[in-house]
Design a protein that fits this description.
- By secondary structure, the chain is of the alpha+beta class.
- It has 3 domains: 3-78 and 126-285, Thrombin, subunit H (Beta Barrel), CATH 2.40.10; 309-396, Roll (Pdz3 Domain), CATH 2.30.42; 413-506, PDZ domain (Pdz3 Domain), CATH 2.30.42.10.
- The chain is built from 12 helices and 29 strands.
- The strands form 4 sheets. Strands 3, 4, 5, 6, 7, 8, 9, 10 and 11 form a 9-stranded antiparallel β-sheet that branches.
- A hairpin with a 5-residue loop joins strand 6 (122-130) and strand 7 (136-140).
- The radius of gyration is 25 Å and the shape is globular.
- It starts with a helix and ends with a strand.
Length: 508
């Protein structure tokens, strides 16, 4: 079995955490200048969602397309400064835990003159695409994740400080804004009309070599990469454009364009045995990325729609099951969520979804791609194969809370559906604690969904002590705004009868 197939069975994700690079992996493509490692991500798209017509590429003169796009791709320098007080606390905790100065462990304190080294800022870099002439830029979330300073360098060497508008960790998308006007913009193309074998160009800043253009063809569409799902989220987009255009560390967030110079994807990942380009690269279609960025700009948060189903590719089923279903392609429904508009519309387990609004879907990834273009409240015409019989259903999409309500980017504890009050000194003495936040009332929301009741005293959320409503609100907002690696609220507390309870709430 060759190395590619071996890794298809057990993926390893290369991340910017060490100077070593795993062999035979799918790798992200962000350049980390301080650690010389690479990561990479997904993409985003323009704010005017009128897609331009794209036909099969016949022209192999790429000079015009290159000239029209290099000025619309920027270099992003992301600096993350380490908080000195946090570093000192970590150092104190390490010493208290018995692993401070390693030489002191072996030889004792040699005069007390050991000076802990000052934490150095981490500097990484990647690419971004200008999607509006007034300064909106799309890039990967992992390029800017945790950064305290963002510097944008244009192709003409002008520099700007960027503001982070919003992020969506589930798709690895981030939207930035710089204070500028009359900027060069790469127009949107129609990634759904892209054909296998069509010429494409990758534009970015590999290894900090700015304004680099490479060419290749579309090798596949609707490619799923389970290795990039991460842990704990079932919302990762897995419907990539696969190309053989050369991309390398630093290309993260850069443009994939057709020969007309239209943006049809954001370069995101590579298959690699060394951490550098080895023949295959992957981009998120602009049909997905454009909707994500529109949401971030308009609402401050992604309006993620779901059918409320769990699904598999037909091709992954046993041969006898495929024979029974009498269909070769599509998304096979294995079960429904608690709030499922698909089930309510009449779909059943073991149905195979084959078309969405007239667009054929060959597998679960392509179904996910189609659904991701819409918002809660939108209606889809689904064509279903039920053991050889074709049926059609009109399904209204819901959000993950089972409604069509708009989720605002500034939403916080309101999502929890509860009110809170701080513990009084008397209550603290009674319970034997000096911190905690009590649930004063419960309404419809996340708390009621998991069974939290009035009177519950919250002690810890994601390992952090909770004393005020603001403590809880900050944790929730950081998750919703993509400023935290967490996607769950892990809550520990107790009821007045002394029973200790743990709850897990999914916010994403």
């Amino acid at each position: 079995m060759n190395k590619f197939l071996k890794n298809a069975l057990g993926f390893t994700l290369v991340a910017a955490v060490s100077s070593g690079v795993a062999v035979g992996t799918y790798a992200y493509m962000q350049t980390d200048q301080s650690a010389a490692v690479q990561t990479n991500g997904f993409f985003q798209q323009p704010l005017t969602y009128a897609a331009l017509h794209t036909s099969a590429a016949e022209n192999t003169d790429f000079t015009q397309a290159a000239e029209n796009t290099v000025n619309g791709v920027v270099h992003i320098k992301a600096t993350t400064k380490v908080d000195q007080s946090q570093a000192n606390r970590r150092g104190q905790q390490q010493q208290q835990g018995g692993y401070g100065d390693p030489f002191e462990l072996l030889f004792g304190n040699r005069g007390g003159n050991f000076q802990r080294p000052q934490p150095q800022p981490r500097v990484g870099s990647g690419s971004g695409v200008i999607i509006s002439n007034d300064g909106y830029i799309i890039t990967n979330n992992h390029v800017i994740d945790g950064a305290t300073e963002l510097e944008i360098t244009m192709n003409d060497n002008r520099k700007f400080v960027a503001e982070l508008i919003g992020t969506d960790p589930s798709t690895d998308i981030a939207l930035l804004k710089i204070d500028a006007t009359d900027l060069p913009v790469i127009p949107f193309g129609d990634s759904e009309k892209l054909k296998v074998g069509e010429w494409v160009l990758a534009v970015g800043n590999p290894f900090n070599l700015t304004s680099t253009v490479t060419a290749g063809i579309v090798s596949a569409k609707g490619r799923g990469l389970p290795a990039l799902r991460g842990n704990g989220s079932d919302m990762k987009v897995e419907s990539f454009i696969q190309t053989d255009a050369a991309v390398n560390p630093g290309n993260s967030g850069g443009a994939l364009v057709n020969t007309k110079g239209e943006l049809i994807g954001i370069n995101t990942a590579i298959y690699s045995e060394t951490g550098s380009y080895a023949g295959y690269s992957f981009a998120v279609p602009i049909s997905i990325a454009g909707k994500i960025v529109n949401d971030l700009k308009e609402f401050g948060a992604v309006q993620r729609a779901v059918l409320g189903i769990s699904m598999l590719d037909i091709a992954t089923l046993p041969a006898d099951k495929r024979d029974e279903l009498k269909v070769l392609e599509g998304a096979y429904i294995i079960e429904f969520a608690d709030f499922s508009s698909a089930k309510e519309a009449g779909l059943s387990e073991e149905d195979v979804i084959t078309h969405v609004n007239g667009v054929k879907v060959k597998n679960a990834s392509e179904l996910q791609e189609q659904v991701s273009k819409y918002r809660p409240g939108d209606k889809l015409d689904l064509k279903v194969d039920r053991k050889g019989s074709t049926k059609s259903y009109n399904v209204e999409l819901l959000n993950r809370q089972g409604s069509t309500a708009i989720v605002k980017g500034n939403a916080g504890v309101e999502l929890l559906g509860a009110t809170f009050k701080a513990l009084t000194p008397e209550a603290m003495r009674k319970y034997g604690t000096n911190y905690g936040l009590q649930v004063e009332s419960i309404s419809n929301g996340k708390f009621s969904e998991v069974g939290i009741k009035k009177g519950f005293v919250i002690m810890l959320v994601n390992g952090r002590k909770i004393t005020r409503k603001e403590d809880l609100e900050m944790i929730v907002k950081n998750i919703l705004n993509g400023k935290s690696d967490d996607q769950l609220l892990l809550i520990k507390g107790f009821y007045q009868n002394g029973s200790v309870k743990h709850y897990a709430i999914d916010l994403i």
